[in-house]
Specification:
The protein is mainly α. The protein is built from three helices and no strands. Helix 1 packs antiparallel against helix 2.
Length: 78
């Protein structure tokens, strides 16, 4: 019996996110592309499995804190 050995290398968000964007529909791309781009820029060069949940939460809070208030804004309710 032969076993196949698979070695998985850590993937950076900038290399993974294009696959997400490719699989997303037009509406998801319109809504989330800004966030995906910011993730790729913020964590460039770091493997996905190296990014802690607390870092994702911190990025989310920073995005909320720096968001422009528009007429159709929901007042930070999401």
């Amino acid at each position: 019996m032969h076993h196949r050995v698979v070695i998985r290398l850590p993937i950076e968000p900038g290399k993974y996110l294009p696959h997400v964007v490719g699989a997303a529909g037009p509406s998801a791309k319109r809504v989330y592309s800004t966030y995906w781009n910011r993730m790729a820029k913020t964590w460039a060069g770091r493997p996905i499995d190296d990014i802690a949940a607390s870092e994702i939460q911190a990025l989310r809070l920073m995005i909320v804190a720096t968001a422009r208030t528009r007429r159709n804004s929901r007042g930070c309710r999401y």
